[in-house]
Q: What sequence folds into this?
């Protein structure tokens, strides 16, 4: 990424003070999470009466940017101006709402234990007084009627009883409904993912009406057709920067895809010869949503790509559940170890030492008589500490004394030290520093050479380049089956975004 | 009516239904209880238990559990029987301090992200210790006005019945019908959503813990009004009774699903279950076990209904 690529396209309005008028303007927003730069100085301008489409691949920074705008995250640098006033100082959720910024987040943010009307009240503090329930019910029903005619949702229904699509409809209606403060800007983060075509159309029409009436909207979707259809301007983000900002008419689907990937493209490194033809597959399984069949052969590193949350982890879990059983159509031939992506919840034993955290994957090998031999455990851990380069004075130190990257290395060591011949990796390198990544990549390669099979779900393009074979997931199905030589960032992005949308 | 709605209706009717069945069985076994005096005797002790159960329910609303409510009620009972009787101003101040302390516990649990079970388990010993300091040996005396209130004999309807209904309705209106009540329960259902809508979760937690402290203090006062004196161990069993009562009444440990009316009914049911077993002339050694069996039966029924609700 060269700096001049990050400067918006020619069509971006010139930043003339005063001309911003009533719009929402983010300038040079930067946000870091530890060593990871999520946003590297992003400017976004949403004037009244515009819908801005925001697209980008995983980790491009879209959600972080929207969280900054909604006030749920505080930017490290940069300014936020709404309606011509600089509101940066002390900008938080309450301030954002005061200024009429509303958000429909990707994950549902309704309270399932409350009724539809009560959920409307949570969003509208001004609904008080004796008849607040009736008022809240009337408010949400009117909005639902306006956006989704024939919705069939009663304001008295408990949210837990509604289908996912209806919950999404309630959330949308709630964000657009207005009480004390006018709605100025609505952020829609993948609002159509759980809606069917007709309902999605109703929503898009409503957004159009809202925008034509002087409101602003930011629309995020992986359905590029929708984005092009609804937006006046499209902003493309990549690696925490804006790489394109132009009127929607200047783009077509392929143009957007090209803008999301790095245009030059990495020529896939001269690949080692495919291991496809060496004997029977170790793993053969279908994704839950169908599509092509995932197969992995001995010594292969197989990448699972696509947008986050499109069924990759589920497939890894299915492989894990079927380990050693050739039951039904799925084949999983061998012992399996899992490297979790979410270290805190799925991987680490925080109160244990490094050695215990590594040894738990190989308890049988560590037995002496009926008990675990501490000496053997220490020996195993020591071996892997050297091999994978865990920076700790002693393997008996607590795991939490390590940095995040080194903790993740310990979890890799746990899987690699075990006798498993299939290693599943659930995007384990998320948020790990580059040096650590390189060390782990090297070891993965070495282990693959020795005949181990890796199934690697990753959201990073660079990691896919290490893989021998890549399957792209979309909506829980495998939609593309790419060999190493066919792999380009563009091919992955093409497959990740729906063709017909 | 759709299936989930039917299941929900059944579930909310279950506490009332089990109470009706139990009451019917008692009337059948001992027809003399079907009188003003009989009901008064049967239900007298239900009032403090109902208050303690509501205290527990307040904490359950925000996905926490209070293991200290029993010793807290003991402490407030001891304060009532001593300071509130001898030097009312000191007594009132001490009770208010107790409620504020509860609010502080809520703030601590929220700000430090501590497990409420651990914090309240530890605090239960603190409350108990304070109770022993205030009243080292059983004794004290209930203030006259509380004694009079708890032994009121209104016409037609016995006092405990009126008290239970009034308490249940007041809490129902505040928690289930008021605008801020929706926020309080929402904080149990989806705290992130409530925070994102601009509400302070700290304020919600402190509010609910202080409400629990208030109900706990009222339970202690009511208990002393009935027993006329106190001791430091007087209400220790309330901890488990209040959890059982709240759950029996349809509340859940997580998710902000609570029911104040159900909680009061649950508390009354538990009180009656004890009497029912004595009327059965069951060996007292088995009574606690039998009480547990009744509890398991009702909860099993609820689980069955819950399952039909889940696989819709």
A:
């Amino acid at each position: 990424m060269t700096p001049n690529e990050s400067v918006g396209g020619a069509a971006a309005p010139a930043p003339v003070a005063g001309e911003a008028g009533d719009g929402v303007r983010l300038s040079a927003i930067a946000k870091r999470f530890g060593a990871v730069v999520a946003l590297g100085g992003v400017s976004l301008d949403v004037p009244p009466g515009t819908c801005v489409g925001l697209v980008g691949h995983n980790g491009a920074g879209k959600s972080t940017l929207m969280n900054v705008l909604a006030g749920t995250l505080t930017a490290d640098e940069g300014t936020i101006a709404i309606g011509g006033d600089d509101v940066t100082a002390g900008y938080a959720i309450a301030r954002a709402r005061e200024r009429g910024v509303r958000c429909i987040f990707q994950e549902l943010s309704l309270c399932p234990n409350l009724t539809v009307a009560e959920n409307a009240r949570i969003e509208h503090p001004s609904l008080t007084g004796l008849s607040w329930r009736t008022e809240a019910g009337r408010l949400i029903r009117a909005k639902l009627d306006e956006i989704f005619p024939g919705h069939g949702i009663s304001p008295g229904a408990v949210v837990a009883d509604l289908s996912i699509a209806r919950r999404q409809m309630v959330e949308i209606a709630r964000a657009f409904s207005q009480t004390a403060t006018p709605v100025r800007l609505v952020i829609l983060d993948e609002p159509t993912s759980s809606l069917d075509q007709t309902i999605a159309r109703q929503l898009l029409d409503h957004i159009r009406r809202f925008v034509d009436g002087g409101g602003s909207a930011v629309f995020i979707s992986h359905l590029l057709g929708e984005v092009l259809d609804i937006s006046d301007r499209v902003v493309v983000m990549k690696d925490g920067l804006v790489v394109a900002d132009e009127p929607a008419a200047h783009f077509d689907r392929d143009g957007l895809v090209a803008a999301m990937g790095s245009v030059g493209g990495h020529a896939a490194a001269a690949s080692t010869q495919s291991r496809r033809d060496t004997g029977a597959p170790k793993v053969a399984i279908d994704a839950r949503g169908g599509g092509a069949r995932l197969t992995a052969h001995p010594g292969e590193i197989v990448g699972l790509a696509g947008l986050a949350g499109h069924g990759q982890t589920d497939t890894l879990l299915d492989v894990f559940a079927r380990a050693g059983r050739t039951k039904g159509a799925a084949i999983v031939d061998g012992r399996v170890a899992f490297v979790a992506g979410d270290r805190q919840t799925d991987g680490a034993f925080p109160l244990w030492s490094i050695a215990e955290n590594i040894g738990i994957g190989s308890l049988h090998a560590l037995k002496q008589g009926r008990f675990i031999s501490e000496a053997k455990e220490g020996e195993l851990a020591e071996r892997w500490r050297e091999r994978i380069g865990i920076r700790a004075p002693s393997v008996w130190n607590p795991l939490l004394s390590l940095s995040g990257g080194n903790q993740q290395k310990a979890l890799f060591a746990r899987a690699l030290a075990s006798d498993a011949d299939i290693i599943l990796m659930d995007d384990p390198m998320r948020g790990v520093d580059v040096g650590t990544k390189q060390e782990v990549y090297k070891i993965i390669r070495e282990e693959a050479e020795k005949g181990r099979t890796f199934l690697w779900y990753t959201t990073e393009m660079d990691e896919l380049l290490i893989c021998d074979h890549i399957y792209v997931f979309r909506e829980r199905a495998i939609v593309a089956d790419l060999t190493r030589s066919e792999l380009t960032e563009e091919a992955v992005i093409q497959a990740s975004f729906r063709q017909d949308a | 009516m759709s299936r989930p709605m039917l299941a929900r209706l059944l579930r909310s009717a279950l506490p009332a239904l089990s109470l009706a069945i139990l009451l019917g069985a008692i009337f059948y076994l001992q027809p003399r209880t079907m009188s003003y005096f009989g009901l008064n005797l049967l239900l007298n002790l239900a009032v403090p238990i109902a208050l303690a159960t509501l205290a527990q329910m307040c904490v359950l609303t925000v996905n926490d559990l209070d293991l200290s409510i029993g010793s807290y009620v003991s402490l407030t009972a001891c304060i009532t029987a001593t300071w509130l009787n001898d030097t009312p101003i000191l007594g009132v101040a001490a009770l208010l301090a107790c409620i504020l302390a509860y609010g502080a516990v809520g703030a601590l649990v929220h700000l430090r992200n501590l497990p409420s079970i651990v914090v309240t388990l530890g605090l239960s010993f603190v409350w108990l210790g304070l109770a022993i300091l205030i009243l080292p040996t059983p004794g004290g005396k209930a203030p006259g006005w509380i004694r009079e209130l708890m032994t009121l004999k209104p016409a037609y309807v016995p006092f405990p019945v009126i008290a239970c209904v009034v308490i249940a309705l007041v809490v129902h209106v505040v928690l289930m019908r008021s605008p801020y009540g929706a926020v309080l329960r929402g904080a149990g259902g989806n705290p992130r959503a409530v925070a994102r809508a601009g509400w302070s979760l700290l304020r919600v937690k402190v509010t609910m813990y202080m409400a629990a402290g208030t109900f706990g203090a009222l339970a202690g006062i009511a208990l002393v009004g009935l027993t006329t004196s106190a001791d430091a161990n007087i209400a220790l069993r309330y901890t488990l009774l209040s959890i059982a009562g709240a759950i029996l009444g349809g509340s859940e440990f997580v998710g902000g699903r609570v029911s104040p009316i159900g909680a009061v009914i649950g508390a009354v049911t538990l009180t009656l279950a004890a009497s029912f077993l004595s009327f059965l002339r069951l060996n007292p050694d088995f009574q606690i076990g039998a009480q547990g069996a009744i509890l398991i039966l009702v909860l099993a029924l609820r689980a069955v209904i819950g399952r039909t609700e889940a696989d819709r």
Confidence is low (pLDDT under 50) at residues 1-20, 263-271 of chain A. The radius of gyration of chain A is 25 Å. Chain A touches chain B at residues 70, 72, 93-94, 97, 103, 105, 109-114, 118-119, 121-123, 125, 127-129, 132-133, 158, 161 (CB under 8 Å). The first strand of chain A starts at residue 24 and ends at 33.
